[in-house]
Amino acid sequence: MAKRILSIKKRKQDSHKGDYGHVFVIAGSVGMTGAAYLASQAALLSGAGLVTLAIPKSLNPIMERKLTEVMTLPLPETKEQSLSRSAYSKIRDFSKKCDCVIIGPGLSQNRQTQTLIRSLISGIDLSMVLDADALNALSGHLSILGNTCYAQPRKTLSGQRGRCSTVITPHSGEMARLAGLRLSFVNKDKKGVAKKFATEYNVTTVLKGYKTVVAAPRKEIYINSSGNPGMASGGCGDVLTGIIGAFLASGIDAFKAARLGAYIHGLSGDIAAKAKTEISLKATDLLEFLPQAFKKVYK
């Protein structure tokens, strides 16, 4: 399975950090700094050359301690210590330096923050991964997704990286809310639901869970085989989001980035479960064992 789906190129001897993409993570709020940490750290461990985390300014000291190699961008916040809509201009300006944006982990459902999220999804000209609170913000506003794919390839300092694209990473409950379906219906036909949503909204859809389904707008389907029940734990999805973001930033196309991400994520969980058992498995264990997962498939 690994040989069939994974083909990451070896790094050239004369490469530099700009060759591997700059991931811009927009995540975190009071009580949810862990989500921001997990997504950012996963992006670094998955090969991103640079990672910057946009965070409410009062939480910046916490994240600077937790994330040694990740840069931070402290931004205006609401009274609830989530990102304020007044942060829009700074975020959009900074995004011009980046190759991929991750939006959602731990951002909260504060009304101002949800409005900001929708503005960012429609206003940033970058490939993006949308998860968690970004998916909550999209519920009832799916027309926004029509503005996330751009016709012209984006050029960066390290060369042309291909067309902008969007990846969403819902679990079954989030998928049900997005599509206006019953949860039972989604669980009975995950493949069909993911395929229809991907085609209708032109987004690569990663429907998480047992045998995660990855569906591309052009009707390609991948069913993931790695992973275990121990990964049904808070924060594991944030790790997947970071992995996919790193792959997108490096120039891998969205469908391949999503299916590689799902496989590596699950493989890391399988290695971790052998070492720590499924019962004790937690999201930071996935980070710990990501290098071993890459070692198994990176030739």
User: Which fold name corresponds to the CATH topology?
Assistant: UDP-N-acetylmuramoyl-L-alanine:D-glutamate ligase
What CATH architecture label applies? 3-Layer(aba) Sandwich
Instruction: Give the topology string: H per helix, E per strand.
Output: HEHEHEHEHEHEEEHHHEEEHHH
Structural class: alpha/beta
Uncertain ranges: 149-162
Q: What count of structural domains?
A: 1
Distance between the termini: 14 Å
Mean pLDDT: 90
* Shape field: globular
Taking the sheet with the most strands, its summary is: 9 strands, mixed
CATH class: Alpha Beta
CA radius of gyration is 18 Å
| Percentage of residues assigned to helices | 40-55%
| Strand ordering within the main sheet | 3-2-1-4-5-8-9-10-11
The total count of strands amounts to: 11
Report strand %.
5-15%
Going by CATH, the homologous superfamily would be Ribokinase
Write the layout of secondary structure elements.
Layout: H1 2-5, E1 22-26, H2 33-45, E2 50-56, H3 60-66, E3 71-75, H4 88-95, E4 100-103, H5 111-123, E5 127-130, H6 133-138, E6 155-156, E7 159-160, E8 166-168, H7 172-179, H8 183-188, H9 190-201, E9 204-207, E10 213-215, E11 221-223, H10 236-249, H11 254-280, H12 283-297
Parallel strand pairs: 1-2, 1-4, 2-3, 4-5, 5-8, 8-9
Antiparallel strand pairs: 6-7, 9-10, 10-11
Helix pairs in contact: 2-10, 2-12, 10-11, 10-12, 11-12
Detailed description of the structure:
The chain is of the alpha/beta class and 299 residues long. It has a single domain (20-297), classed as 3-Layer(aba) Sandwich (UDP-N-acetylmuramoyl-L-alanine:D-glutamate ligase), CATH 3.40.1190.20. It is 44% helix and 14% strand. The protein has twelve helices and eleven strands. The strands form two sheets. Strands 3-2-1-4-5-8-9-10-11 form a nine-stranded mixed beta sheet, with helices on both faces. The chain has a two-stranded antiparallel sheet with strand order 6-7. Strand 2 (50-56), helix 3 and strand 3 (71-75) form a beta-alpha-beta unit. Helix 2 (33-45) packs across helix 10 and helix 11 crosses helix 12. The longest helix is centred in the C-terminal third of the chain and has 27 residues, at 254-280. The two termini are 14 Å apart.
